[in-house]
Design brief:
The complex is a heterodimer. By secondary structure, chain A is mostly beta strands. Chain A is built from 4 helices and 17 strands. The longest helix of chain A has 17 residues. The longest helix of chain B has 25 residues. Classes of the chains: A mainly beta, B alpha/beta. At the A-B interface, helix 2, strand 7, strand 8, strand 9 and strand 10 of A face helix 3 and helix 4 of B.
Chain lengths: ~425, ~300
């Protein structure tokens, strides 16, 4: 109501001040006037907080692949390793990946919540993550509860859409069933130090590979991890981690769905990880380089029942594996990457000959190269080639052409 | 055993970080660390998470930044989604209750100024647009003055024992700053109405202040790298409608602006954009002294 009057006054004021001056350019006068209005409006500070929109931030990840293999993917095995679900090279031909629907928001001033549903290409819905996290415990402490990916290792807690290759390293595939996520609770603490130092522990239900059967009254897995990190000059940043996972398995089923191999016993994983990132002046926009490597060793002790035969055999063995990868963005939007994978399984005793735990004297390995193009930070196209020697005496040439797109809100990525 | 003792000694050394009564300020950008230093003097110790040579949209959520944020009493950032790609990850990993959104220790400068270029249509096909408006508010010194007044209040809220000092330092700063703004505005008078090309749409507040007229941008869409097709189109446009200079921030890659400058025969100017962006931009006063001088220099 007051605005027209106000504008008139302003116009009058503007004329009045210019009355004695020689006639100015009317365009210029208008611009000055607009400027004056803007300044007057600016005197009232706009105390509008962002994210006052109470809806959770929603983001959707679309992922699809065209894959080609020189060996039948159904014949995929890693000799010496009992594999969890969905751990092969995937389907041949055109295939949708998992579509991820992520919703997240601060719940109030004390809690944050996040929900990630994975819709599989088989039209099934899986709750990948659903957790709450404290924001205001203070003193560097945070507690997380619900279903989430364990913070052991480096890549374990990274979502598939943020991977630098189309598939997980072999060591994750073999020892952790791609990624260890389960229902549980986590406590973390960041030390008040100039070098980043974080300690954490988790307790999980123990339903997911390499645990199984929610042993120990539904508290079958516990983990410990320690992370350290810092900068070297402006160009380099690093993080190292040590982790341990201790899982109880009760009739953990792997292999064929109808006549699975069953394992009951204890599974302990120890791992070390290193990430090194480089960017000129710490500005990754033009060029950047990332090197990461992880080593895991797993000890399993218990009884193994091949193909649910009902005659379990004692089993005790150590399996190890590592990967190293380097990804270089050589110009904006374009990256190239190289990855090397190695696995080793102890020779199982004679009674287990012919089962999946028989390493047949083979050490699985794989070398991968990839190049990807990101039109923006929301879209990525990737071409990848694997020279896969997972199987004994059989080389598999694997090709992937993949898209990964993110729609809607785009959460911040961790280091 | 020796190794264990060494490790323990190292750990204790890390823990025994010098304990001081200073207010620890974590600033997302160098302009806010410089401002916090002006207002807090030796009552504050400031840390800038980024440098003038880094693009504040694209920062890695590095472990070193988590460690710094963990110990901060006050976080001072631009806001308006400028840090959306990395700050939330730092905040959630820091375990620091004092600096979470909504707390007194969380300060977004863009909340206290009039924002420009608030998009009427939100569509990612328009590039990396910010729903809250253009976040590069620090290129207009009058915005710095406005933020200074609120930031001094916030410092007083967090550290009541220093309230008088912060108020006094703010009054002193405001006096010097207003005089400087008047001087810069007067010096920059010849720039009014001058047509310019920008690399990234990072200068609307500067243009608004000095009356510069932006006629083209080298990025086809905000945040999208210049393409040769788009640069050629801009060059053709400049032949019809000449501009006087090409502006880029110190962190931007210089190739596309130099390419165009050579062909359009107009100077390319690397503005400091923030404190530390040039040798002369050592503090906030130096930042605008240098900005105005560079612009005037390019006009000759």
């Amino acid at each position: 109501m007051h605005k027209p009057v106000f504008m008139a006054c302003l116009l009058f004021a503007a004329h009045a001040t210019h009355a004695t001056e020689p006639p100015a350019d009317p365009q210029q006068q208008l611009r000055d006037l607009e400027q004056r209005v803007r300044e007057l409006e600016a005197d009232k500070p706009a105390t509008r907080q962002v994210s006052n929109n109470f809806n959770p931030a929603i983001s959707l990840i679309l992922d699809g692949k065209l894959s080609g293999f020189s060996r039948e993917p159904d014949s995929y095995v890693l000799p010496g390793f009992a594999l969890g679900e969905e751990t092969g090279p995937g389907d041949e031909g055109l295939r949708l990946g998992e579509s991820e629907l992520i919703m997240s928001s601060n719940i109030d001033d004390e809690f944050y919540g996040q929900f990630t549903a994975a819709l599989t290409p088989e039209n099934e819905t899986e709750i990948e993550e659903a957790f709450i996290e404290t924001l205001a415990l203070g003193g560097g402490a945070s507690i997380k509860a619900g279903r989430f990916f364990s913070h052991i290792g480096y890549l374990n807690s990274v979502h598939a859409h943020a991977w630098d290759f189309a598939d997980q390293p072999l060591v994750y595939r073999a020892l952790l069933g791609n990624q260890y996520g389960d229902d549980g609770v986590q406590a973390r603490w960041v030390a008040p130090t100039s070098v980043f130092l974080e300690l954490g522990a988790e307790l999980f239900r123990g339903d997911s590979f390499p645990a199984g059967g929610a042993a120990n009254s539904g508290k079958g897995t516990h983990t410990l991890f320690i992370h350290m990190g810092g900068d070297v000059g402006a160009d380099h940043a690093w993080r190292v981690g040590l982790s341990r996972l201790d899982a109880d398995a009760g009739n953990r089923a792997t292999g064929d769905v109808n006549t699975p191999d069953l394992f009951t016993g204890n599974s302990t994983i120890t791992g070390i990880d290193l990430v090194w990132k480089w960017a000129p002046n710490g500005n990754p926009k033009q060029r950047n380089f990332k090197f990461q490597t992880e080593y895991f060793t797993r000890d399993e002790n218990g009884i193994f029942d091949p193909a649910s035969s009902g005659s379990p055999l004692p089993y005790s063995g150590t399996q190890t594996g590592w990967y190293a990868q380097a990804v270089y963005q050589f110009m904006p939007r374009w990256r190239v990457g190289l990855r090397q994978d190695r696995l080793h399984a102890d020779a199982a005793n004679a009674a287990l000959t012919g089962t999946v735990l028989d390493n047949t004297g083979h050490e699985p390995k794989r070398i991968s190269v990839m190049t990807d193009f990101s039109n923006s930070e929301f879209s990525r196209l990737r071409l990848q080639f694997n020279r896969d020697e997972s199987r004994a005496m059989a080389k598999d040439n694997q090709w992937y052409l993949q898209y990964v797109m993110s729609l809607g809100a785009h959460g911040a990525h961790s280091f | 055993m020796k190794i264990f003792r060494l490790l323990l000694a190292g750990f204790l050394f890390l823990i025994a970080f010098p304990a001081t009564a200073e207010i620890k300020v974590f600033a997302c950008e160098p302009e806010w660390s410089a401002l916090a230093q002006e207002l807090g003097g030796d009552k504050v110790s400031v840390f800038a998470a980024t440098t003038a040579l880094q693009d504040p949209h694209h920062i890695e959520a590095r472990p070193s930044l988590i460690a710094r944020l963990r110990q901060a009493d006050l976080l001072v950032c631009t806001g308006a989604e400028l840090e959306a790609g990395w700050l939330p990850a730092l905040l959630r990993q820091s375990g620091n209750a004092a600096v979470q959104p909504g707390k007194a220790g969380y300060f977004e400068a863009a909340n206290y100024v009039q924002k420009l270029e608030i998009p009427a249509r939100l569509d990612r096909a328009e590039g990396d647009v910010h729903a809250a408006g253009n976040p590069h508010i620090q290129t207009d010194p009058r915005n710095i003055g406005r933020v200074a007044a609120v930031l001094a209040q916030r410092l007083a809220e967090i550290d009541p024992s220093g309230a008088t000092l912060y108020r006094q330092r703010q009054r002193d700063f405001a006096k010097r700053w207003d005089a400087a703004v008047e001087r810069w505005t007067k010096q920059a008078a010849p720039l009014r109405g001058v047509p310019v090309v920008v690399q990234h749409k990072g200068f609307p507040y500067l243009e608004n202040w000095l009356g510069l007229r932006q006629v083209a941008a080298l990025e086809p869409k905000p945040g999208v790298e210049p393409t040769s097709a788009h640069l050629t189109a801009v060059l053709e446009q400049l032949q019809r409608e000449p501009a006087r200079m090409i502006l880029r921030a110190s962190y931007s890659d210089d190739r596309s602006s130099e390419w165009l400058a050579e062909r359009a025969k107009i100077p390319a100017v690397a503005l400091p954009f923030t404190v530390g962006g040039s040798d002369k931009a050592k503090d906030l006063f130096g930042l605008f002294d240098d900005t105005v001088q560079l612009l005037l220099g390019a006009l000759k």
